[in-house]
Amino acid sequence: MDATEYDLIVIGAGPVGENVADRAVQGGLTAVIVESELVGGECSYWACMPSKTLLRPVAALRAARAVPGAAPAVTGGVDVAATLHARDRIVHEWNDAGQVDWLNGAGIDLVRGHGRLDGERRVRVEAPDGTERVLTARHAVAVCTGSAALLPDIPGLLDAEPWMSREATAVAEVPASLAILGGGVVACELATAFASFGTRVTVIARSGLLGPFEPFAGEAVAQELRAAGVDVRLHTDVQAVRRDGAARVVELKGGDEVRADELLVATGRVPRTGDLGLETVDTGATPLTAGEWIGVDDTLRVPGTSWLYAVGDVNHRALLTHQGKYQARAAGDVIAARATGGEVDDRPWGAHVATADHSAVPQVVFTEPQVASVGLTQKQAQDAGVRARTLDVDLGGIAGAATHAPGYAGTARAVVDEDRGALIGATFVGADVAEMLQAATIAVVGEVPLDRLWHAVPAYPTISELWLRWLEAYGRPS
């Protein structure tokens, strides 16, 4: 811990920073991670892991209630106290000792404190006690500071002391009522969770739900939220927010108001680059700006530098933990290759690039129903000038769905590049469709010809038979 010089300095100890450092160390380098909060980052303590734990009970109850032989055994709703206890276990009571042990075992040093860039290959760290130290990198610095919830410029919002996603996933007591601003993934997932807890939830969205996905995905989620008792208000603008005693009052354009005990803001993300020392970095013609996303090339290196990398949310390519870890593996490997004089494979889909961020990003929304997608939507393909064909399948008409639960409802859409005869996008909406996503991801990334997919026979009776339905709709090979 007394060392001040390393081959690699990583700012941020979330899953992205951990993976960059780990891959670099496996490549023969020394590495240190600088972290001002908990080792493990947002995903481990305030995002992916706790939120999915909060959502699991409602999914399990839905699955049991849908099966005639199991439904009679369900005699109650979600046990809120037990759910919050499970959340506490998943986040280890917000204690990162286990993550620190992993760093030690991986041969990665840890420096606690706030790290700021301080010129080329230098990072100044302010410790919690106010003391400072300077670390120097022989080869590279990787910024892996992630993103934070966006607070929109709405009059009175800040004074209303709203929740952001952190407060919502770390809640100790659920409120009687909750208003949610936003219609994206966080808004939809947390509306699902809190409605299952018995909270009276109102979702206020400026447009529809899950805008970047296929339209039928947001429509299905809105329908199920309403069925769960959520007041879903779409295409609704907020004029102002105020406090009225302990209540938060959301004033809507047109004069209507929504009152709630708590207010959750889930309207987007901003990069954690506001106090990072970006102004000290010489990038040539295009300077870096505090508070903005950091642009990178496909090897995750900042253009105009030979030593600075930005990995994960902070580069704004795909704000997803699994994509950040994907980038991190490529970044750690290429940093090690460049440092040791190894060969750099920066071809498309090469070992040292993050190509999939452009065209094959998978994502799951853990709502009721689940939404899973990869690649391009129909609109994205059209906007990109692709001669695309769309294939829609009613999942309820597949034999495997009938054994899953009576009345199973869902939709699967394939987007096919007609010129290449290959899948370029897929969206699944229905119960437990998340487990179907990886097959589509492999087909998109591998550019598997549809003619070859005729020989990838789906097991019967499973919902994966939808692949055969897609192929039949497309037409047999000549």
Automatic annotation (TrEMBL):
Residues 6-322 form the FAD/NAD(P)-binding domain. NAD(+) binds at residues 182-189, 268. Pfam families: Pyr_redox_2, Pyr_redox_dim. Disulfide bonds join 43-48. Keywords: FAD, Flavoprotein, NAD, Nucleotide-binding. Residues 361-466 form the Pyridine nucleotide-disulphide oxidoreductase dimerisation domain. Belongs to the class-I pyridine nucleotide-disulfide oxidoreductase family. PANTHER family: MERCURIC REDUCTASE. This is Dihydrolipoamide dehydrogenase. It comes from Microbacterium lacticum.
